[in-house]
Design a protein that fits this description.
The chain is built from 18 helices and 37 strands. The protein is α+β, with helices and mostly antiparallel strands. The strands form seven sheets. Strands 20, 21, 22, 23, 24, 30, 32, 34, 35, 36 and 37 form an eleven-stranded mixed beta sheet that branches. An eight-stranded antiparallel beta sheet has the order 14-13-19-10-11-18-15-16, with no helix packed on it. Helix 6 links the parallel strand 5 and strand 6. The N and C termini lie far apart (98 Å). The relative contact order is 0.08. Bound molecules: guanosine-5'-triphosphate and magnesium ion. The site of guanosine-5'-triphosphate has 21 residues, from helix 3. The site of magnesium ion has 5 residues, from helix 3.
Length: 636
Amino acid sequence: MRRPVSSSDLRLLWLSMPARDLLARRDDLRNVAIVAHVDHGKTTLVDALLWQAGSFRANQEVADRVLDSLDLEREKGITILAKNTAVRIGGVKVNIVDTPGHADFGGEVERGLTMVDGVLLLVDASEGPLPQTRFVLRKALEARLPVVLVVNKVDRPDARAQEVVDEVYELFLDLDADESQIEFPIVYCNARAGRAGLAPDELEPDLGPLVRTLLETVPAPTHDPAHPLQALVTNLDASPYVGRLALCRIRHGTLRRGQRIAWCRSDGTIELARATELLVSEALDRVPAEEAGPGEIVALAGLPEVTIGETIADPDDPRPLPVVSVDEPSLSITLGINTSPLAGTEGDKVTASLLKARLDQELVGNVSLRVRPTERPDAWEVQGRGELQLAVLVEIMRREGFELTVGKPEVLTREVDGRKHEPVERVAIDVPEEYIGVVTQLLALRKGRLQQMVNHGTGWARMDYLVPARALIGFRTEFLTETRGAGVMHHVFESWEPWHGELRTRPTGSLVSDRRGQATAFAMFNLQERGSLFVSPGTELYEGMIVGENARGEDLDVNAAKEKKLTNMRSSTSDELVRLIPPRPLSLEQALEFIREEECVEVTPRSIRLRKVELSGATRQTQSSRRKRAAATTPA
Ligand SMILES: Nc1nc2c(ncn2[C@@H]2O[C@H](COP(=O)(O)OP(=O)(O)OP(=O)(O)O)[C@@H](O)[C@H]2O)c(=O)[nH]1
Ligand SMILES: [Mg+2]
């Protein structure tokens, strides 16, 4: 006779099952990240998925790349911060994490990947895999996340979908993917038109094939029903109504609005707190929820000091999760208060204490940044992933009213086995064939090592290099000049290598103003033969300010405020104005690329000026002759 099943039988059955069967699945949920090289169409694809899921009314006005909502993102046309959105497809809620494609924001991608169970790897059907494709794929493979390959922009006239798929297979092999990882599904897509298909020339009128493949490939989140609440904070945001928001994915358990929680802090302490507000993503909005279960991505209010990497847990059984580690910074700049003679005239945040407070605030939400003290009490060393990341920080601060002095970007070195090591970048260069020689020459001077060269037969060549990161500072400007603006270049951190020794830097010197005053057309006219100028007549100048690039190697002190001593002043000035070559004003990134040692950039809400670190011409003269004497007496 069969006896009724007792609870202890069930327990025995439960214990005898292999561990993974203990896990429950949330079939009503998927968490996926979209990863790719810059501009391959991630944010555009999120737009299309939102439309596909009916998140907007037919006549609603929605901006293109609606997720790129920061001012700076819209201006630059790139994504800077990873963002979450959610669509409902059938009965399934799909949380989508849109990540930035620019290498400098790789930290955002790494964190985004900890929230999801699979990725859509986007690759441009014409450009193929580029350095950041390699970086994001490597991270996805390390996290053992299933991949759907989305070959996007198949509508491009120069699309070469089949070849690109082969290149992606090669990339998987190159990254030591195992067999199960290499069997990824492929979907072809025109994100701009919101169409997808299983063959490049057979796109359906909507994204159906992509959505179906996603639901099949990206597994539903799993969790242990017996495990107490556990959620890892992977990102921060702020709401004007409820203050700081901790974005987290709930690993196990359920989080209810108003409930008591344990806040496991990064210093090892555990504090009791309350979840005052709970929000979940619905399309572009965050909406309040009463509770959220395992596998869901939520925004939680109630912890004004929470930081990334901390765990939200059950107050009766708190179990902290290990901290997510992201790649170390490889580049640094010095940020200090503005010390130029024009300081305080254009911004309202000029003190060291304001600057320090602002940097501390940035550290909270940006785990890939580090701030270190310097010898000066009013300057700090800020370490990050690359020039753009640091330039974006400076640009944001400048818009907030800060006046700053920004030093030359420098690579960070580290000791490995007692030897000095430096970061090396993987560089992909696309140029018209006729520039292959020029590029080879430029990179040979910079100790670049050619890894591969492919000619697609379209008149363009793709060259893959490994180059010390140090040699790339300031390289872009020269590269663009030498390739007449036609070259395209991308790079991403590859590895640490022993120090490569002396490297060539900018071959030109600077034209330096020798006095305070206003730039005159007369002086500009005479100076433009010596090099190219950054300032125009009327620009406020001071001693030690850089007014242009000297065509020769050394610096030259010049009087850019010189007046013409003639009587018929008016007519001759206008003559000269006509013949003046328009100045080349430098953007913040260009200015940071341009400066050499002993030079820095003055940044205010209204201006970007280049200057010598030492402003006094006399002092610079003494310093340089002392250096020359020292060089002459030390044997080579
Ligand atoms: N022809 C074509 N253009 C596309 C397609 N998808 C996106 N684009 C264009 O590609 C450009 C970059 O698109 P984004 O969506 O901003 O690319 P992204 O990958 O989000 O870029 P980052 O976030 O900065 O890395 C935009 O000009 C899009 O209009 C497509 O399927 N076909
Ligand atoms: Mg984007």
